[in-house]
Amino acid sequence: MAVPRTAPILVASNRGPVSYALGEDGSLTARRGGGGLVSGLSAIGPDANAVWVCAALGEGDREAARRAGDSHLNPGDTGGQQVRMLDIAPDVFAAAYNGVANSVLWFVHHLLYQTPVEPVFDAEFAEQWAAYESYNAAFADALAQEAVDEAVVLVQDYHLALVPAMLRERRPDLRIGHFSHTPWAPPDYYRLLPDDVAAAVLRGILGGDRAAFLTERWANAFADCCAAVLGAEVIRDGDGDGDGGGMATAVRFEGRETRLGVHGLGADADFLRERSRQADVEERLSALRAQIGPDRKSIVRVDRTELSKNIVRGLLAYRRLLETRPEWRERVVHVAFAYPSRQDLAVYRDYTERVRRIADEINEEYGTEGWTPVALHVKDDFARSLAAYRLADVALVNPIRDGMNLVAKEVPVVSERGCALVLSREAGAYAELGEDALVVNPYDVEGTVRALHEALRMSDGERADRTKRLAAAATALPPQAWFLAQLRAL
Ligand code: G6P
């Protein structure tokens, strides 16, 4: 039995706000997820009848989705949120999520390919692409079914690039927006994709009324791709001298116009400050302090073990720091949290291994009786991340490319004594935080060594001043305001 159309506001994303573990006795245990979308959605309040459509990711999710059928999940599991979890066939899901979204679209937008040998778009990819289409269609069907007349639909991210156009076909009355949480590739790189795929992704997003991004840089890159691949017309902000060189504000294609927008998701200061004072964080703070040792400084990084995060070059820079600036030996610890991510993919497993190996090597080369230079933790623990934010002297955020990077925004909010931020110019956060950070080219290890050295030597006063300004910039658009801004714009 299908659910009646009730939702005036819909959100769609691959990963939903809840996940389930399946016990051996067949019981399901729900675990609520965090992140900007979850707290953003709370801004609209419990009476708004918003529905969140997401995919079942693992066995537990699939079982929960099956038990719910075409209805919503048990609200007791979701904090009252109405969630429709789609039970997509495991092989279709794997091909769409691992094969297309994470191995191809993610790689393109983060410039991750070693182009002499990859990508190779062969018959296997053609099958995966067909799976991606049907996975997107499953979302479009569910959204079309749930939405009341003229409802607003916010589609999230590269997993669901085809949904806006598919949904418009099914329900032309809806107001549809797409939000990209990733960077967008420049046209020459984007055109690595097979021509039909490159066009389909752009046409998919242009099927919406609005396409929004985390920074102007990514919005402009999207518009450039629309011009280069589709021959679409790009409307730009006049920059005063009439040559139209400003930010791209809309794309016109086949008689329709899709407006472009920028919403730089910020940190949730109230939540972070409250959460980082709780008992479990205090406990981990003591443990970390003991691990670092008295009178030592810390360089902290917190990432998913993700190829784009550049953890390896960060470790290489730290090794060079110890080699070329021996005064820091025994006086600093690199606290590196590298949490597991996308371990179904071999390149991610290899990368994780490499991170471990280099950390071990550094500890063997430089470690002493009372000092372990790198404290690498690979088990996901949000409370411990917050503890590390509180005590960090230096935060290292050096991604090759990143849509935003919220760690760069969270550290200054939680930091107790001020923390120097070493920040890649290729992170979206650079647009807002660049002035008070020590900015690095993520590929330049020697440059990163210099930035780390400078950060470690920064005076307490300067660190505190910069941190205050960084925190203000980082919280300019907290998740709830970010979410409401997208809704209003539609
Ligand atoms: C990025 C993407 C999100 C994704 C997250 C975690 O931030 O923009 O859409 O959910 O990474 O990746 P995962 O594959 O674990 O969902």
Automatic annotation (TrEMBL):
<dbReference type="InterPro" id="IPR001830">
    <property type="entry name" value="Glyco_trans_20"/>
</dbReference>
<comment type="similarity">
    <text>Belongs to the glycosyltransferase 20 family.</text>
</comment>
<protein>
    <submittedName>
        <fullName>Trehalose-6-phosphate synthase</fullName>
    </submittedName>
</protein>
<dbReference type="Pfam" id="PF00982">
    <property type="entry name" value="Glyco_transf_20"/>
</dbReference>
